[in-house]
Amino acid sequence: MSESDNFKLVEKKSKVKNIFDSISGRYDLLNHLLSFGIDIYWRRKALKLSGINKNSFLLDVACGTGDVAIEAKKFGVEKIVGADFSHNMLRLFHKKSNWIIGNNVQMVAEQMPFKDNSFTNITVAFGVRNFYNIQEGFNSFYRVLKAQGKATIVEFQMPKNKFFAALYKFYFKKILPIIGGIISGNKSAYNYLPNSVEEFDEKVNLEILLRNSGFKRIDIYQLSFGTVQVVIAEK
Ligand SMILES: C[S@@+](CC[C@H](N)C(=O)[O-])C[C@H]1O[C@@H](n2cnc3c(N)ncnc32)[C@H](O)[C@@H]1O
Questions:
Q1: Mean pLDDT computed over 174-178
Q2: Does the global pTM surpass 0.70?
Q3: Please, which of 113, 154, 203, 215 could form a disulfide with 210 given CB 3.0 to 4.6 Å?
């Protein structure tokens, strides 16, 4: 990797970390407001598709304030570890759910401090797009999953239908940054959101990256008119 590529990765890592540390206090409110509450359904549906149950050992990567892990608990999952590199997001997760204390790890997804073949399931909701090196992230997912373990990725994407895409773009690029900026006090963070989704949509093919990391079976589901994808990869 060239020095300038390396510099870009380091730059992205600190930019993203600063964004989430700074908006953490308003993150949940804005998530529910800007998605009209549908984000709750996206996480629940992804967990259902992943087939998670009381025997699962779940690592929720980029767990943020913990909404996936909290939902997973309702599916009967008892063993849950939450992982994120933002201290402020993890602190809010602790406040929301005292059962996670001691089971939360501050770390980067690209270099996870867990033993090989540890977890039956990994979830990552709206996190992969923010990784500074997605391939490295998937390599570590593969390493820490047990055989037949599943990585479930929930991520935004731009809808394919042209008419709907135009409406969606207007909302996502014009309205959402204004509301997000006013409520969070950080306008650039809510400009980053639509820009990162667009860039991710144009440049990243999750299936190829997952296969590069060694995942064999990959299922892809579309939710809410193709604005959200759920990708499930089995080791
Ligand atoms: C959009 S939030 C999603 C939080 C949560 N999963 C949810 O569904 O609401 C993205 C999270 O990814 C975390 N994150 C981004 N890049 C990361 C990385 N490379 N390693 C660990 N966490 C990361 C951020 O700190 C943030 O909490």
A1: 91
A2: yes
A3: 215
